[in-house]
Specification:
The structure is a single chain. The chain is mostly beta strands and 373 residues long. Among the domains are: 68 residues, SH3 type barrels; 62 residues; 119 residues, L,D-transpeptidase catalytic domain-like (Beta Barrel), CATH 2.40.440. Helices cover 14% and strands 37% of the residues. The protein is built from five helices and 27 strands. Strands 1-10-21-20-19-27-22 form a seven-stranded mixed β-sheet. Strands 2, 5, 9, 23, 24, 25 and 26 form a seven-stranded mixed β-sheet that branches. Strands 6-7-8 form a three-stranded antiparallel β-sheet.
């Protein structure tokens, strides 16, 4: 039996290995040319190189790509025109410790004569149109023709002139602005001796090429071997779909966590900037709203006198109400863009507020959201 099995096995081997015996149509075997690793170098111009882009070649190419993307940022993110934000108004912060008397004429103000009324209490600001100096003392004419003395003034108030950027379509990746002067780190995490020596000025625009989460916080790679912590930057997260309820692919997007604002038309981002929304006690409410009231310039007052946060703001330009008495508007009384500190409104710089006011229309959608929603 064993001898018979061996002979049968040999017969089958001869039959199936013989080149002269075919049981089916012969098929040429597919041959794949051997592909070597790419030599160390940069392969940006080649979409499909004739080698495997791995190891040092892949690393060098990625580094070169990131550097090229950083150089091209000024093309993809263009600051709005310098003409935006100009105003004939100049602002003053009123002194909370001295009387705030108004006089009907310059002569009365100089003599300290008959007072016409008293300016608002609390954290109050006014605009003025004329300044006159007499005997080394300053007097200010308000838009209504009345005058105030220098003792009623605490300081000048400078409109915030930060400028957002125009975008040519929705960006591919997250981007934003450095909030305070920051040194980048060579790797994510708070480790000793990881400072790169590269100091980024406030409001430098950056893009995030990689995100690493350590604990509950994010670190962002903004250049080859350069990382920043999430509290050092305010980011715009591009939306690739319109929010639920938006019916025309046109909306203003407000990110409460990042304190940024983006504008979309036909579903594509056209503008982005920093903003300041409500502090915790007077938070800006998430939701979908419509612009229902617009003012080229208006006065604002609110807060609680008993709690010491009453405010009175004269001549606030480019104001658009969207949620009860919450509005998008310019600000001249703080420099907190990128941080929550308002009484619920969405504060913008003068240039950004004017640009948005001229772009927006009555009834436009305003989508306010938070990362925790």
């Amino acid at each position: 039996m064993k001898s018979h099995s061996i002979r049968k096995l040999l017969f089958l081997i001869i039959i199936f290995s013989s080149p002269h015996i075919a049981f089916a149509e012969e098929v040429e075997p597919i041959s794949y040319p051997p592909q070597a690793l790419c030599l160390p170098g940069i392969y940006l111009a080649e979409e499909n190189p004739d080698c495997l882009l791995l190891g040092p070649a892949e690393y060098l190419t990625q580094i070169a790509w990131m550097k090229a993307e950083i150089v091209s940022q000024s093309i993809r993110y263009t600051q709005i025109d310098p003409s935006y934000g100009s105003t004939h108004l100049t602002y003053l912060k009123l002194n909370q410790d001295n009387p705030r008397y108004k006089y009907s004429s310059l002569e009365d103000a100089i003599r300290g004569g008959k007072r016409s009324s008293t300016l608002a209490e609390g954290n109050a600001y006014v605009s003025y149109v004329t300044q006159v100096t007499n005997n080394n003392k300053n007097y200010y004419e308000l838009p209504d023709g009345s005058w105030i003395r220098s003792g009623a003034i605490a300081s000048f108030a400078e409109p915030n002139m930060f400028r957002g950027v125009l975008t040519n379509g929705t960006p591919e990746r997250i981007f934003g602005w450095i909030l305070l002067e920051t040194e980048t780190r060579s790797k994510p995490g708070y480790y000793k001796n990881t400072g790169t020596g590269n100091i980024l000025p406030r409001h430098t625009i950056i893009e995030a090429f990689e995100v690493v989460k350590i604990g509950k916080s994010n670190w962002y790679m903004i250049a080859p071997n350069e990382w920043i912590f999430q509290t050092e930057v305010a980011l715009v997260v591009p939306a690739h779909n319109s929010p639920k309820g938006v019916t025309n692919n046109r909306w203003i997007d407000i990110n409460l966590f990042e304190q940024t604002l983006a504008v979309y038309r036909n579903g594509e981002m056209v503008f982005a900037t920093l903003t300041t929304t409500g502090a915790s006690r007077t938070a800006t409410r998430p939701g979908l709203f419509n612009i229902y009231e617009r003012h080229l310039i208006t006065n604002m007052a609110g807060g609680d006198k008993d709690k010491g946060d009453y405010y009175n703001l004269k001549d606030v330009p480019w104001t658009m109400y969207f949620d009860e008495r919450r509005a998008l508007h310019a600000e001249y009384w703080h420099d907190h863009l990128g941080y929550r500190s308002s009484h619920g409104c969405v504060n913008l710089s003068f240039p950004d507020a004017q640009w948005l006011f001229e772009w927006a229309e009555m009834g436009d959608w305003v989508y306010v959201w938070d990362i925790e929603d």
